[in-house]
Amino acid sequence: MKNNTELQRDVMDELEFEPSINAANIGVTAKNGIVTLTGKVGSYAEKYTATEAAERVFGVKAVTDEMKVDLPSFHKRDDEDIAQAAVNALQWHVWVPKDAVKVKVRQGWVTLEGKVDYKYQQTAAQNAVQNLMGVTGVSNLITVKTVVAPAASDVKMKIENALSRAAELDGEHINVEISGNKVTLKGNVSSWAERNEAERPAWSAPGVWSVDDQLVIAA
After folding, report:
1. pLDDT tens-digit readout, 29-46
2. Which of 1, 15, 174, 193 could be joined to 219 by an S-S link, Cβ 3.0–4.6 Å?
């Protein structure tokens, strides 16, 4: 098991290795597997990428994001421009259903609202807007529509089969429970990145609109 100093060093190395991040402006602390990121970044995209980079480091159990977005002057845009760019990005994204997502912008912060049929569509909408110039943050309030729950045994089998196929996961240590449209994942994984990867097949199963991830990151 890594001590705090080793984990801090590994996260700093991962940030420095990621070419889209200016790691010199990001502070890293680690305590008992909890990593805190501080400092200033030049865009929300860089902020999001830095958090993802820290999460994929072995030994990280959670990441606290305290970074601030400090846009350079040539990246600043008014809310109307950002809103129009966001609407265009959503319209051009093949995975975002037409007219399903509404956009609000306040001081560069984008809020997405609406309903979609699948989790991947909710994620696609956020991906479409978070890298736009001038965006300082994103609140994804899009919900996945409630549909009639399929047979629990069928959903459970599909998810378990998908977990067993995943090269990044040891599906034998993950237990899948189904209750209506809700999937609960229990068991142990070896990293935060593996925990996130385990959610993907759960969200991909037909009829699922809620995933309760209770997976524990084991030392």
Report:
1. 999 999 999 999 999 999
2. 1
Q: Residue 189 phi/psi, 5° resolution?
A: -130, 170
Question: Nearest-CA neighbor of 144 among 112, 111, 119?
Answer: 119
Domains of the chain and CATH, by start = 4-69 (3.30.1340.30), 75-144 (3.30.1340.30), 152-217 (3.30.1340.30)
Strand pairing report for 210-213 and 174-179: unpaired
* Other beta carbons within 10 Å of 193: 17
Whole-model pTM above 0.90? no
CA angle in degrees (0–180, nearest 5) for 157-160-165: 125
What is the per-residue DSSP string for 181-212? TEEEEEEEESSHHHHHHHHHHHHHSTT--EEE
Q: What is the pLDDT of residues 129-166, one digit of tens each?
A: 999 999 999 999 999 876 666 677 788 888 888 888 87
| CA–CA separation, 104 and 80 (whole Å) | 10
Distance CA 142, CA 137 (A): 15
Structure tokens at 26: 């990001």
d(C-alpha 70, C-alpha 44), whole Å:
9
Q: Are the CB atoms for 185 and 157 separated by under 8 Å?
A: no
